Known about the structure:
The protein is of the alpha+beta class. Helices cover 54% and strands 6% of the residues. It holds the Pfam family GST_C_2.
Amino acid sequence: MKLHWSPRSPFVRKVMIVLHETGLDASVTRIRSVAAMATPNPGLMVDNPISQIPALVLDDGTPLYDSPVICEYLDTLHSGAKFFPAAGPARWLALRRQALADGMTAILLLWRQERMKTEAQQLPEWLAAFAVKINAGMASLELEAEALARDGFDIGHVSVGCLLSYLDYRFADLDWRAGYPQLAAWHASFAARASAVATMPDDAQA
């Protein structure tokens, strides 16, 4: 299999964590792919028409995208504890957490694009809306922090961990830990996992 990959994408990181946790990392060849919002990548579009990463290409040439689909597919390839519970409340809880964390991460990507503009180009109402949505999401996750620590480690945990790490990576000025201490304590345990250490975002990589 081959994976269109970046060392800085929080959505790619979800896939990489699942690969490390399941022992499947060696089965994937990583292809460094740039997926800038305003510049479609023709090489990437061969495997994902909308030019987004991650995109996984199976050995028979079948493409899979995006991170929820790829992670669930990878979860079928190993015999260990599953990242996607098979059925019932545990499944819906994991999927809901993944949806919230992925949605918040998508907002952060848009927020970062807006913050990178000159002050004259920025839309204050957009900046305010992004902040309101992220704060609401963080407050919701803070209420779940104790349960996150209790519930094992599934795709919901992976997604929330990657979200919080992306806040550290691109929004360090927000100092999110000051307002969400229980979530910060949970994230410390996430960040200490070998899979998280191995997949830290890295501006130094090409």
